Amino acid sequence: MRNSSGLKVLFIGGTGNISAAVSRLALSRGIELYHLNRGRRNIPIEGVKTIQADISDATAAAKALDGHVWDAVVNWIGFTEPEMQRDIQLFTGKTRQYVFISSASVYQKPVSHPFITESSPLANPYWDYSRNKIACEERLMRAYRETGFPITIVRPSLTYDTVIPMAIGGWTDYTIVDRMKKGKPVIVHGDGTSLWMVTHSEDFAKGFVPLLGHQQAIAHAFHITSDELLTWDQIYQALGAAVGVEPKLVHIPSDDICAMADKLGQSWMRGNLLGDKSWSCIFDNTKIKTFVPGFRATIPFAQGIRRTVEYFHADPARCKVAEDKNDFVHQVLEIWNSRRPL
Ligand SMILES: NC(=O)c1ccc[n+]([C@@H]2O[C@H](COP(=O)([O-])OP(=O)(O)OC[C@H]3O[C@@H](n4cnc5c(N)ncnc54)[C@H](OP(=O)(O)O)[C@@H]3O)[C@@H](O)[C@H]2O)c1
């Protein structure tokens, strides 16, 4: 494994679901790590130096960062092209590498081939989030071509640690777990057999940290995922097993879920499913394994999700049910059951 120590690195963000685990690994490898964030989260990361600022206020951020020169800057919270423009201005001549956290949802949908490599086409007509990430990547690549701005692009796919990575009903709240524990049905898109890879943030970190300061990573894009291929039924069943229940799974075609979601004012579901999780995607991790010899994800989902559940259970405040999300699942199931032939 490449020795990253001696690097001075800035994370914009840094206390999030993925970036906190990456921060801990970076510090353990001897990186001098700074965070720039608003300091709103109580996430203990020993050894990090925090610069408090709101990155959306470019003038305040520039002032807070004045005098620093970095080996690498990682923007964990870039979503639009103007933000890339801002960062090009902020960091030109100030960093030897600028890493943009994109998303594996940028890859072509509908998928024309289930094996996804970094050269798979980038196109997503279903999800503006993904199209904006593509625009960010293109703006940065242009900056590299025109001025040599030293970019690296990293595309996480579904990556979890402090979130519940379910396609419907999951994320920073406990809603889907609460439903499972109470014996209430949960929705699985399609017939539950489409394939996905879910990655623990600590595994992602093992591929990511050696890219920092990696001379050959400039102008390259990478995804970093687990190699464990699961059906969506298996993903939901592993969550159920982690809380000691057999979940009641209701299969509904993605097109029908999206049509119902549109009517319920949740049209973002179209991007989430048709622009991402409804397709069988098999991420080929050859490239990251070539640039980071020895990289291998080692946390099986059944094991990682138990740790995530323990994280939620460690603080009752985390076990909150999002009523709007619960209502959405309930309403979709009601509509579906009412029109389904017996
Ligand atoms: N998880 C996935 O499955 C997945 C998949 C694909 C792509 N991604 C990408 O991964 C990235 C998310 O990474 P993450 O999970 O580590 O992040 P996260 O959980 O969203 O954390 C956000 C971080 O940014 C800081 N922050 C938020 N607004 C800020 C502002 N205006 N100024 C300064 N700091 C701010 C937060 O701290 P404060 O609140 O204290 O400021 C926190 O440190 C995104 O770019 C997302 O598109 C994730």
> pLDDT under 50 segments (min length 5)?
none
Bound molecules: NADP nicotinamide-adenine-dinucleotide phosphate
Q: Quaternary status of these chains?
A: single chain
Shape: globular
Number of extended strands: 15
Q: How much of the sequence is in beta strands? A: 15-25%
Estimated helix fraction? 25-40%
How confident overall, as mean pLDDT? 96
Cα Rg: 20 Å
Largest sheet, if any?
A: 7 strands, parallel
Class by SSE composition: alpha/beta
Describe the protein's architecture and organization.
The structure is a single chain. The protein has 342 residues and is an alpha/beta fold. Helix content is 38%, strand content 15%. The protein has twelve helices and 15 strands. The strands form five sheets. A seven-stranded parallel beta sheet has the order 3-2-1-4-5-7-12, with helices on both faces. Helix 3 links the parallel strand 4 (72-75) and strand 5 (98-101). Helix 1 (19-28) packs across helix 6 (201-208) and helix 7 (232-242) packs across helix 11. The radius of gyration is 20 Å and the shape is globular. The mean pLDDT is 96. NADP nicotinamide-adenine-dinucleotide phosphate (NAP) is lined by residues 13-19, 37-41, 54-56, 76-77, 101, 103, 156-159.
